[in-house]
Amino acid sequence: MKWLQIHITVEQAQVDFTETLLSSLGAVSVTLNDAENQDLLEPLPGETPLWNKVIVTGIYAQEDDEQIDVEALETFIRTQMPEAPIRSEFLEDQAWERTWMDAYEPIQIAEKYWIVPEWMEAPEADAVNIKLDPGLAFGTGNHASTFLCLQWLGKVDVKDKIVIDYGCGSGILGVAALLLGARKVYATDIDPQAVLATKQNAELNGVLNQLYVGLPEEFNKVLADQKADVFVANILAGPLMALAAEFSTLIKSEGKFALAGIIEEQVTDVSNVYSEFFDIMEVEKRDENWYRISGSRHMY
Fold first, then answer.
1. Is 102 annotated as a binding residue?
2. Could you report the per-residue pLDDT of 230-252, keeping only the tens digit for each?
3. Which sites bind S-adenosyl-L-methionine (predicted)?
4. How far apart are CA 240 and CA 231, in angstroms?
5. Among 21, 105, 140, 240, fewest CB within 10 Å belongs to which?
6. 220 assigned binding-site residue
7. Could you tell me if 94 and 126 lie in one domain?
């Protein structure tokens, strides 16, 4: 089998229409990419940032016994979007799958503590092995901020504890907490795809029945008055600072917390904001410019 990719470059206002058009024409997947190397500002909770000009890509399965008429497909798209630049290309099936899978290897977080891509054997069968499908959402353990949070979870006492994972991405941190002995994890993310990925990775690791995950509004209703013994948020500095007061209401007196997604220039600002509610006990660095801030909730 081959895979046909149709790339259409559009303005931000045309993205929804283009996604719908490609899906209606049978795309098995639609992805968005920056067309102008534009940096995005950090999003606040509930916001979905998007570039000013976007490459919308529809992916179509080219079966050996049912060939896609690429010219007819492009001609129809041009009747709907006559001004949009369009290009197409084919990918061989082997390159499509192996290029993605070969990028991942097991990652050791600490002694007897690993992340293992789901298709690979664990290097140590008797270790805490987090099985992961890295293709679903952000959070594979390769990124320094995720690694810092995983490392921290391995050092704090999570056994029989209530853990909140705010901005859960792939669910790797919540899954890790449960495999390390947590009693219950409450996870949330603004991205529905992250909610799905977290459920799938929790099921892959046999801990789905101990984990709740939902969008922030649902999460807040389910959590109600429950507070965390251990709290982790791997997002970005802007949202972290905006949510500091809210996070302070989610953590028990003297409960442990860790924040990541912070670069060197932001450490002081984030620490100053959080010092109103928390005791800052450690600032840890990884890969030159990424930092984790951790400590405990003020006694109340």
1. no
2. 999 999 889 999 999 999 999 99
3. 146, 167, 189, 234
4. 13
5. 105
6. no
7. no
